[in-house]
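Fold it.
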Amino acid sequence: MPVSGRGGYGRERKLGPLALTVLLHILVIGLLLLQKGAPVPRKIEESLTTVFMPEAKEDKGDKAKAKTEQKEKKRESASAASEPKPTPTPPVEQPKTPPPPIPIGPSWLNMSRAEFAASDISKMARAQRNTGDSGDTGDSSSTYGPGEGPGGVRLYNADWYRKPTDAEIGGYMTASMPRRGWGLIACQTIERYHVDNCQTLGESPLGSGFGRAVREAAWQFLVMPPRINGKPQVGAWVRIRIDYGVTEGGPDKPG
């Protein structure tokens, strides 16, 4: 009994793994059969379908609105172009402040009728001329020797081409000036019997202003230019003396 018992147990131990191996083979064969018998699904070719949709019709209201906007833009651009551009205002120059006027005394001289008549230079007689160097050649007489005039020039006595009027002489006298006196100036003769570059040589009374008055009035004087050998010497210098308050028969003007 003990021998037979060990033999049966050994057979059971050998049959277990064998049965497991057979079972695995059966499962593998079954799986292969299932895979072979299953139908292979066909791949369905899908085609693209193109659907043409009708074009959407534009709304008439949108077109009209767009046209209206375009017209408004054109009007705005036309009005902007027609509007005149503002002209820039030029800078305004500030006026210069003039210097304050220099106070001066009255430019007239109150005179009585007798004094005014006595100062009328148109009624004054001619003084005797110094004819020492005039001779028969027609030369003008020289009052001062060479070098006695401005800059050392020679001075000649002037002859009036036209005597100045009382208004021309009296317009440069002031109320502070004395009633009587004289002014002596030296001037250079220029074209048309006028004189220029006048300078004061003397006056009496000293500081009376008669020299200044004669010099300022000299632009109105018309004198004959000196003559040398009978020919007028335009550009030569002459002396002019004006006496104020001298009665008829006094010295001539110019002196």
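The radius of gyration is 69 Å.
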